[in-house]
Amino acid sequence: MARRLPDGRLQFLGRLDDQVKIRGNRVELAEVEEALHAQAGVGEAVVLASETETEGERQLLAFIVPDGQQTPTETELRHGMLETLPDYMAPSAILQLDALPLNANGKTDKQALLQRYRQLTGDPDNDAQESTPESTYASQTERDIADAWARVLEHRRFGRTDRFFDVGGHSLLAARLMQDIRERLSVQVWIRDLFEHDTVASLALLLDERRGNDQPQSSLDRERIHPLREDASLPDDLEFSAWQATDSLARPRHILLTGVTGFVGAHLLTDLLATTDAHIHCPVRARSGADPWRRLDEILVRYGITLSKADRDRVELYRADLSEPGLGLTEMHYDELAEVVDVIYHSASAVNFIQPYSYMKRDNVQGLLELLRFAAARRTKPLMLLSTISVYSWGHLHTGKRVMYEDDDIDQNLDAVITDIGYVRSKWVMEKMADQAAQRGLPLMTFRLGYATYHSTREYVRITSGGGVWYKPAWRIVVFRTWKRCERG
């Protein structure tokens, strides 16, 4: 909502809807409330957005009144909501009340709710906030870690065995927490430690063990080389029959496309529809009971992509999970696709610049292994693997090479990869797996992408990745069709 001032300027007054931005993502509060209402034991629910102590950041707060039949815990509610919502839409706190406060008009008094939240959480050192009998910690290290949690979470509603990500934590807070612990406890910690030891008790054991180790502590988070090589080894029973080189690759009738709900995958879908006559079969990770078409349509609208009815008739979506046996498909769908698919385009990938390799392994490494099994089922199917130039990592610092060629063995970059982020480590393992499959007879083409930023003909710029400092100016140029002239000095 805005108004025009007497001098012709527009004054922005605010939004008329309940849409807010959380960690860079647009969120409809009504959608979060709907997910809360769907949980067992919830009678009434209200979701609000509140400023945090960190400037410019907001969080979701939920207030519920139990229905009187059962009283769900905060963890149970959050897990239930994540069945239908992405993690950034999960409230940082879910408070239970006897009744929702009302204003003079009989409507929910949102200011009173926020005041109630501040009363409970305004002082992270307030022992009254602790809502669990496990508030007695087993060691000084546990107490120190709990204090650090309270500082970044801005509450103490957790015990020594509660998971950080179940009590309002997320990846951005994880980075802040590790910095806090590193400075106050004088011990080296990495974000990977929190993902793998996500309770106060387990993290304290790790840090006590690390401090008791006489070995010098490295400032680099190194993955051990042996596990990466081991993960990259294909099982002996994975074999590929001889591929019959036919025109099915140039003129495929059926294509399996993964990652269609991603930025690259969605645009790859439109290109395959435009350049082939094939039917496109797309496994989609849709949450329990959710319609995969609804999820894809939301993505297409976001990217400015429109599919004609004829195009939609050529696309078949399947609820699936690539990391599960049989790709998470029904046995009937798996067998049918294994029989008819001519070529596989693998665009699916978990992309996260904070989560450790142990978290990325399931989606990326195990997902590719199951897809390789599918490529070998019934008859061999060529694989088009979308990878990343990041598999080179900072290899030049170890090899001394200034130029890398696409057919160079990426083993030479391993010393750099083991100190890189979990995403890069997982992509290195994926390429090694695919190369082994090719040696066993799988027709393979690997495409290494750089930053996927924007489409040349659509007014959408992807600004949520690590290169946002470059994407935002590009977005302004595309949308406003203007740019600032830069003079050379």
From TrEMBL:
Q: Which SUPFAM superfamilies match?
A: Acetyl-CoA synthetase-like, ACP-like, NAD(P)-binding Rossmann-fold domains
Record GO biological process: monocarboxylic acid biosynthetic process; secondary metabolite biosynthetic process
Recorded hits in Gene3D superfamilies, A to Z, give:
3.30.300.30, ACP-like, NAD(P)-binding Rossmann-like Domain
Q: Which keywords does this chain's UniProt record carry? A: Phosphopantetheine, Phosphoprotein
One Pfam annotation, family name? Answer: AMP-binding_C
The residue range of the signal peptide is: none
The segment annotated Disordered runs over 121-141
- Which residues belong to any copy of the Carrier domain? 136-211
Q: Does the keyword Phosphoprotein apply?
A: yes
* Superkingdom of the source species: Bacteria
Output compositional bias ranges, type Polar residues: 129-140
Q: What is this protein called?
A: Linear gramicidin synthase subunit D
Instruction: List the top taxonomic levels of the source.
Output: Bacteria, Pseudomonadati, Pseudomonadota, Gammaproteobacteria, Oceanospirillales
